[in-house]
Amino acid sequence: MCGIVGFTQPECLSPDSTAAIRGMVQALDHRGPDDSGVWMDADAGVAFGHARLSILDLSPAGHQPMVSAAGRYVIVFNGEIYNHLELRTRLAGCGFVWRGHSDTETLLACFEAWGVEATLRECVGMFALALWDRQTRSLVLARDRFGEKPLYYGWNGRRFFFASELKAIEAHPSFSAPVNRDALALMMRFGHVPAPFSIYQGISKLGSGCSLTIPYACTSDDARSIQPLPYWSLEAVSESGRRAPFAGTDEQAIDLLAQTLSEAVRGQQLADVPVGAFLSGGIDSSLVVALMQSQSSQPVRTFTIGFDEAAFDEAAHARAIASHLGTQHTELRVKPEDALRLIPALPQIYDEPFADPSQIPTYLVAQLARAHVTVALSGDGGDELFAGYNRYPWAQKVNRRLQWLPGPMRGVVSSGMVGVPVGGWDAMNKWLSPLLPASMRMVHLGDKMHKLADALEARSSAELYRGVMSLWKSPGQLVLGSREPLVLIDREQTGLPGLSFAEWMMLVDAQASLQDDMLVKVDRAAMAVSLETRVPLLDHRVAELAWRLPMSMKIRDGKGKWILRQLLYRHVPQALVDRPKQGFSVPVGEWLKGPLREWAESLLDEHRLRAEGYFDAGRVRSAWLEHLSGRRHWPLQLWCVLMFQLWLSSRTGSVHAD
Fold this sequence. Notes:
Belongs to the asparagine synthetase family. InterPro entries: Asn_synth_AEB, Asn_synthase, ASN_synthetase/amidase, AsnB_N, GATase_2_dom, Ntn_hydrolases_N, Rossmann-like_a/b/a_fold. The chain is α+β, with helices and mostly antiparallel strands and 658 residues long. Among the domains are: 2-232, Aminohydrolase, N-terminal nucleophile (Ntn) domain (Glutamine Phosphoribosylpyrophosphate, subunit 1, domain 1, 4-Layer Sandwich); 391-473 and 482-501, no CATH class; 588-652, no CATH class. The protein contains 30 helices and 17 strands. The strands form three sheets. It has a six-stranded antiparallel β-sheet. The chain has a six-stranded antiparallel β-sheet with strand order 4-5-6-7-11-12, with helices on one face. The chain has a five-stranded parallel β-sheet with strand order 15-14-13-16-17, with helices on both faces. Strand 13 (275-278), helix 9 (283-294) and strand 14 (301-307) form a beta-alpha-beta unit.
């Protein structure tokens, strides 16, 4: 795991370019504390930089930027190619003399032998890379199939920049850009800035499974004609899976999944440094750890954190799983003050406004793991590929019933639900809860009923799901001067024929919120402490198998991830894992009323909001006061605003007025 950065310009590099690129690399030293390097071609106007976290080939033979054996290519690479030894075997007879055993050297040899796109298709791994082709004088950027590794790019003035994180681009002395208000509106809706947008105008994120070629001396005026090209598409995978579905029995499917996922876990343990795993006690992380332990003669190192608040604590479940599997388990009890002390550092860690509150425990468990290992496997991806989120069956059920409810009747029902104040629903819930079974009890019923009322007015399935995934309603009005752009979730299901509504939601999530929320959260948290994370469930061969399986092997008896559960039961007793989905977060709503109240009040001060000019101050203040009084529950909506405000206050040097 590393950090990459660079820039090109249409004229020769000036003498101060060396200091500029070194400063950009230094901004990424947390991603690569073991080594760093720069490479420049002054005449071509190209500068590359690299910060290295040594995982494979700890010797100087793995140093980057790296030049290919024939001298044609220069690369900076962030990630791991898990099948690189197999690729080397396939190159036997091509005359390559290996200098070391790094996967970066393997990549360069494959590029020379097969070309760039063919090599990307053959790679099993996670990566972001930049490749300078001296022969064609062009720059190629590429990102892995699911977007595990980040890559920003874009023009600022006459220079074209790329980097693993925005802070490296910001470190260039000439960089200055206004906030992208349209992207900010998206952030208020989803809690993160979705690709291809970034918080800065002119800077984009490269989409997952894509490459981008920048010709020599290309300028921002040419940008519209230069678009990323996919070398792998999850939509194509889903279509292929529907054309050739799995036709075997349940047991045969479980066996095939066991084989495929075990191979992914085995490949992702390739390292010359200590490897461990995050263990929350949930289905996905428990399965990854179980497969790791089944392949090891030594106890696997596992890590979890616990909270005093019972509703947010899964440590006991993780401890039980670890005990059964025989792992070497490390647990840290986190006090609220530990989490609160982290908040001022969030803009530096997450680089652009990011408002998933589970960013806090994710950083803390990464910090815990880094004290013992350099690589940690995680269980991300299971929900999106195997239908683990509760919202899938819920939204599908609501959507099915809406089809039978005439439009005018929907409006009547919605108006009736909104006509009861949130407090009225909550009072009713308080009275009824003791009479209901535990499975039917709900918290914040009023907020949920009002959100359901919005869903009833949806004119399409895409609009329904957009509402389910939204935090602020009408964020284009909340963010002054913004016009909310269309993103992947706005694409109608009719554009993907043959998918059920649940499958469509899973496909959208795997391409959008997984890439821009879940994987960002893990990457930035882990890299802030120089920990590499790997995600076996996102091996593309696992994804391709998942899309061949019928939905009945994913959702059965009202529960998601059926096939993952069955595989896990081969290693762990069902009683240890068969419980409601809990999630991994912190009680931010209560903190905002308590220990964070003064801090939040300073960032949400009405005069400050009006002076900065990004938000409708009246609407933000109204939500803040409603939350404090208990009339409404707005923790995630307010956290979005607070994370932008905190980011803005930390970036005054790079942001200019628009």
